[in-house]
Every structure is written in C-alpha cells, then in structure tokens.
Amino acid sequence: MRAFSKSRRIFWNALMDFIKEERSEMRKRGTSVEEKKLRVEEKGRAVALLPIGVFLVLFLGMGIVFGDFYAMPAIVAFLIALLTAFLQNGKLTFADKMKVISAGIGDENIITMSLIFLCAGGFSGAVTAAGGVESTVNLGLSVLPPSIAVVGLFVIGCFISVSMGTSMGTIAALAPIAVGISEKTGFSLAICIGAVVCGAMFGDNLSMISDTTIAAVKTQGCEMKDKFKANFLIVLPAAILTIVIFWLMTRNGSYQIREEMPYSIWKVLPYLVVLVGALAGINVFVVLISGIALSLIVGVATGSIGLSEIFNVVGDGVTGMYDITVISIIVACIVSLVREYGGIQFILNLIKSRIRGKRGGEFGIAVLALFKRDQRRI
User: Fold this and answer.
1) Among 227, 167, 172, which Cα is nearest to 198's?
2) Predicted confidence (pLDDT) at residue 49 exceeds the cutoff of 70
3) Which end of the chain is flanked by fewer CB atoms within 10 Å, N or C?
4) How many CB atoms lie within 10 A of CB 140?
5) Distance between CA atoms of 226 and 307, rounded to whole angstroms?
6) Among positive and negative, which fits the CA dihedral 185, 189, 194, 200?
C-alpha cells in the first residue's frame, strides 16, 4: 500500500507538472499569436490595396483598349473597386464593413469638402451666367498692349483659371480668341493655343474654388491662404519663365483689335471678391456664398440674368459638381475599408523605410501626393 501511495503521488506530481508546462506553452503560443497579429497590423497588408489596383486596371485598361479614357466612367470603376473591397476580409461581417464606411463618409473633412464643392459649383454657375468670364477676357485683351497678344493670352488664362478653378473651362473660354489672334497675326496656332493651355494649367490647382485645392486643404488640415501662398511660390518662377519665352517667340508681331470688346468691371468684381476674400483667410463658405449673391445681383442689374432665372443658374452650377461630390463619397468608402484592412499602413511603412533625412521625407510626401493625385484625376 505504501508503495502504491508513493507511486500515486509521483504520478500526480508528474501530471500536475505536465499540466503546468502545457499551460505555460499555451500562454507562450497565445502571446506569440497576439504578437504576430500586432506585427501584421503594424506592417500593414499589401493585399488590402487590391481595390485600388482593380480600379487602375479597369480605368486605364479600358482607356488603352478603346483609345478613349471616357469609355469607362470613373464612378463605375470606383463602384467596382468598392465591391472588391467589400468582398475582401471575411473576418468582418457585412454590417461591420458598413459601419466602417459610414464612419469614413461621416468624417468632418468629407462632409465639409462635399459642401464646398456644391458651393463652388453654385458660384461658378452664377458668375458665368452673369457674364463674368466674357468680361474678364475682354478686359484683359483691351488693357494689354496688342504687341504682346500671345503673352496676354497666357496672363489672362492665368487669371481666369485662378478665378474659375477649372482648366477646361478656361481653355473653352479662350481657345476661340486664340484662334482669332493666330489668324490675324500670323503666329502659329500651336503657340497661341499653347499660351492658353499654359495659363489654364497655372491656376487649375491654385484656385480657391478648384476641387483639388478644396480636397487638399480639407484633407491635410491647412488654411486655404497658406496653401495658396505655398503653391504660388512654386508656380511663379515657371510663369515668369513662360512669359519670357512667349515674348521672345512673338516679340516682332502685333495684333490690332478691330471689333468691340465690351466688358464691365462689375461683372469681374465677383471673381476679385472671392480671390481677395480667400487670401484674407475669410471662411470659405462665407466667401463663396458672398460671391454667389454678388454674381446674382450684378447679373440681374445688368440684365444678364432674369429675376426668374437666379435659382436655375445656381442650380445648374451645383449640378455640375455632382460627379466629383459622389466620387469623393465613394472614394471615402474605399479608403475607409483599405485603411481598416491595413493597406494605408502598408504604403506608409513602405515609404518610411526608404526615407533618409529631410530630403527623403520631402520625397516621401511628394510620392504620397502623386499617388493621391493620380487617384483623384482618374
């Protein structure tokens, strides 16, 4: 009996030691699993970027295959990318994913940016209907010496693009005038149109009401005036060099204006109010709504806008911003899911790992900006 009791104690002690060792091993394995999960989260997941890859392949692929990058509407490509994001990561339920994108859409910056888009569209519609674009063009051509007509086209293009916030709108307004100047001066049509395009590009991302400017300011948390000043210092040297080049190329030519170039300072005033107000740091909503009201007053007073049309012209401008507003919302959904899956962290870590010093940091910021700009352009 004594031997049996001793054997039982030995067995029991051995069993307890075994259980303790197993528990210890289980804790270690659990810790290692948690650590592994944490390391994965810190490292990010490249596969989380699949929705962005799907979008790029669809949009660029369709454009290359059909020779037309409008063959695949951007909104459709983004919706397919969003579907791809929803099909990823089976660990999250559909309801969880809806919560993620709802939080992304409800972000203060997204809501504010969307409202600014609509206000900017309303201002653009009102000031255009009031005759602001035509008056600005005619004023510039009347004031600038005819001997620098091509340089004048560039300068006018710079001002209009900054005022309107759209390069395509600037080109549409000035291209017919550029054709006329080319015919009457003998300058190459390519040079005249080139001056218009250069001026349009000058203010496309510099304008206070440009969608890219609005998006950059709201997503990066900086002031509109600070962004304008920083960008202005970047584009100013290029603009001066462009003026010099165009002047050297066309200095021996002249252009005589034989037709009337009617303009009204009052119709140009709304642009100036918006530009000065934004530079002064006044709230962007106050600036844009003031610009809308002033444009409507000027338009009605000069007979350009009928009293019964004031809401229609603003509505037309707002409608023109629907596409970019909806795309911004869809992109916010995609980015929210990509961030949740670890895609954003993967990009940040990838860039950080290659940064060395201040210049490396600046290069990293440039790469991120280029990456986001390409997404927005597409």
Assistant:
1) 167
2) yes
3) N
4) 22
5) 38
6) positive
Q: How many Cβ atoms from other residues are within 10 Å of residue 115's Cβ?
A: 15
Residue 15: the pLDDT is 43
pTM of the model: 0.66
Q: How far apart are CA 77 and CA 63, in angstroms?
A: 12
Q: What is the pLDDT of residue 36?
A: 43
**Under DSSP, is residue 180 helix (H, G, I), strand (E, B) or coil?**
helix
pLDDT of residue 377 exceeding 60, the answer is no
Tokens representing residue 270 in the block: 């709304």
DSSP 3-state of 150: helix
98, pLDDT greater than 60: yes
**Is-contact 157 174, C-beta < 8 A?**
yes
CA gap 302, 75 in Å, rounded: 39
- State the amino acid at position 62 in one-letter form: M
* Token couple for 131: 């005759």
Q: Distance between CA 196 and CA 13 in Å, rounded?
A: 91
Q: Which residue has the higher pLDDT, 167 or 94?
A: 94
**Position of tokens 């010093």?**
357
User: Per-residue pLDDT tens for 156-183?
Assistant: 888 777 776 667 667 766 776 777 677 6
Using CA of residue 295, residue 163, residue 227, residue 369, what is the dihedral sign? Answer: positive
What is the predicted pLDDT for the residue at 124? 82
- Return the structure tokens found at 47: 């596969």
Angle between helices 265-279 and 284-302 (to 10 degrees): 180
For residues 174-191, one letter each, b for 16 or more C-beta atoms within 10 angstroms of the residue's C-beta and e for the rest, the string is bbebbebbbebbebeeeb
The pair of structure tokens assigned to 13 is 């002690």
- For every residue of 239-302, DSSP letters joined together read HHHHHHHHHHHHTT------S-----HHHHHHHHHHHHHHHTT--HHHHHHHHHHHHHHHHHHH
Q: Count the alpha carbons within 13 Å of 111 in the hemisphere toward its beta carbon.
A: 7
| Alpha carbon of residue 34 to chain centroid | 39
Taking CA atoms, 328 is separated from 43, 104, 315, in Å, by: 27, 11, 20
3-class secondary structure, 208: coil
